[in-house]
Amino acid sequence: MSSPETPRTWTFLTNHAQVLLCLAEDPDVRLRDVARRVGITERAAQRILAELVDTGYVETVRIGRRNRYTVDREHTMRHNQQLGYEIGALIDALGVTPASRGRSG
After folding, report:
1. Domains annotated on the chain, with CATH
2. Do the beta carbons of residue 52 and residue 58 sit within 8 Å?
């Protein structure tokens, strides 16, 4: 059993999954807010976003000075244990819907 003082050494979801969930929840979110929510640097969030875009999980559209992100819910997961499962199933399982959590920032 861990106490509030026990440092976290691992999490169930990777930073890539956390970034993807932030984008699924709020397509208009700023990357600095994603970084803050996930607990990573803005540069790390940019790198992860680039990887998600390059592999087809996310599409980015520029609207004025902001970006809008679309998660391809039909894109399949990458790990051998989840092959054939669409990323939308993970998003749904975690109860993430647009603005399901209060917006901040």
Report:
1. 15-93 (1.10.10.10)
2. yes
In this predicted model, what pLDDT tens digit does every residue of 70-79 receive, in sequence order?
999 999 998 8
pLDDT tens track for 36-73: 999 999 999 999 999 999 999 999 999 999 999 999 99
Inter-residue contact 19 to 48 (CB < 8 Å): yes
Partner residues linked to 68 by β-bridges: 61
Closest by alpha carbon to 10, among 52, 42, 94, 2? 2
User: Tokens for 23?
Assistant: 């984008």
Please give the model's pTM, rounded to 2 decimal places: 0.83
